Queue: 2 jobs
Job 1
Amino acid sequence: MTADTAVDLSRAATMIELGRHDEATRLLASVVAAAPDSSRGWCLLARAHLGAGRPSEAVVAARRAGALNPADDWPYRLASTALLSLGRGQEALSAAREARRLAPDFWRSHVCLAQAAVAAGDRTLADEAVEQALAIGPDEADVQFTAGKVALGRGDLSRARAHQQSALAIDPGHSGAINELGRISLRERDASRAAGYFLRAARSAPGVGIFGRNTEVALAKVLTNITVLVAAVLAIGIDVPVATRIEPTAYLVMMVTLAGLACGYATVVVRKLPPEGRRHLIRMLRRRQWLLTVAAIIAVVVCLALLAALFLTLGQAGTLPPALVVLVIVLASRLLVTAIIRRARRRIR
């Protein structure tokens, strides 16, 4: 390797660390053209392609590096990561196994194998690999991060959170660990907290699109919960006077109380969001897709409640409790809300 090639490789590695993946790709393309036998050059090119979201090209570069230096575990780890991005789980697992065979005392090879095993659905292998990684490098943020992901896959939320918090104690800017805390919060049905974590992850790694998408998933859940509560109040307001002989004054008190509770809940949920999350939620509601979504939900719920009221008025319900009618409407609206929001979210880019 010439001195110029070494300098260019060092520059490219710095560009990758700074997230300038396209610049690094162009520089490394010229490096490997001039020095095609540079395994490190091909490995760095694979890293640059991965960072730029080009996993297919990363696989090609990693395999080229592996052919040049078959005793090095790095090309196999890079190939495994790229293959996971392509959804080729078994190939990724094979590459990760080879990386660990070549470097059994290196924590990164065990982390790579654990990640591939999780994707392949082999929890036993994932547990074994992550235990080895923890034994070798417990003070590495990526080891704690991977251990947390494996624990979350098992459904052990408390252990998953502990590992991710350990990762952040080691590296406070670890965007993956922050994102995982958001996923844990979603599992705990705390969408507001999850949105806060996802927004924080997006600030830590602005170029990673998945964090932005996760933010919208969490905010959509916040919107879902509020909309379902509004649907319940509407259903009660429409059907209770028909199903019962409630006095107008009592009805007014009931509706004011329910509306107050609904507003209080919405206020608490929204206030739990960080300021940036509240602004993001407002921007979502300004989009035509989300406005149409909310309008469609409200319209359908009102129609369902009116049909139920007509059913009760005609005396076809018999002894059917009005509370049961309202419950059915609310459950139906919940299913509708989830389906419509998922469909609307797919249209948003």
Job 2
Amino acid sequence: MTEWTKNGKRSFVVKVPKSHHIKEFELLLRQMLIHYQVPVKTEVKEIPIEIKCKCGYCGEAKSSDPTDVIKLLCPSCNKNNGKVISGKNIEVV
């Protein structure tokens, strides 16, 4: 991250797949930047997680109960039979 400040970059956006823990991620990122004294501003954006389900549905997945382990459910059949086709990586831009 220090390379960004050396190259004149003063802010960046982190694109994170939708999850129930986005606030914790933002807090951890800010604490890390403060700890390592990296003088940049950050913005965290959620990106949708899209699946292709065995039932034929292709689109944004819905998440299970946040108190449970996160499972991606198909909104059409309400099952965990989908393959993630986009939104599984964290991007820094």
